[in-house]
TrEMBL record:
It comes from the Eukaryota. Keywords: Mitochondrion, Mitochondrion nucleoid, Transit peptide. PANTHER family: UBIQUINOL-CYTOCHROME-C REDUCTASE COMPLEX ASSEMBLY FACTOR 2 (PTHR34260:SF1). This is Mitochondrial nucleoid factor 1. The keyword Transit peptide applies. GO terms for biological process: mitochondrial respiratory chain complex III assembly. It is found in: Mitochondrion matrix, Mitochondrion nucleoid. Its main location: mitochondrion. The keyword Transit peptide applies. InterPro entries: UQCC2. GO terms for cellular component: mitochondrial nucleoid.
């Protein structure tokens, strides 16, 4: 039975989308890592609590299939702030978050970082 569970989780990993714009914060990548740890021995892995494993799989499968999105349809494509899903994706992009963090730094920190780095090769400063 563990082999069947393992194959189901592998199929779920294949279907789950991966978002490369969220480096280190992507749910699909996180799930793949957790499943790899949970099923270290592949099909031969002994599962301590099969019921809990099945519940976890069913929950993830419902999320992946947009079960709740279909069950509870939204009337607008925005959230309470009026921002669309695409705008949220753009704001949560790793590159954009890095730029925001850089903008938050004070002038003193920026100067300190600039002058504490060794000069790059090929530059004539």
């Amino acid at each position: 039975m563990a082999a069947t569970r393992y194959r189901r989780f592998l199929r779920l990993c294949e279907e789950w989308p991966r978002d490369d714009t969220k480096q280190g914060r992507d749910l699909g990548t996180f799930l793949r890592q957790r499943i790899a740890v949970a099923f270290r021995e592949g099909e031969n892995t002994q599962i301590a609590d099969p019921e809990k494993c099945d519940q976890m799989y069913e929950s993830l499968a419902r999320i992946n299939s947009n079960f709740y999105k279909s069950k509870f349809p939204r009337f607008q494509d925005t959230n309470f702030t009026g921002v669309t899903a695409e705008e949220c994706r753009m704001v949560l992009n790793t590159d954009n978050l890095q730029q925001t963090e850089d903008a938050k730094k004070g002038i003193w920190k920026k100067l300190k970082e600039k002058f504490s780095k060794p000069p790059e090769e090929g530059s004539k400063d």
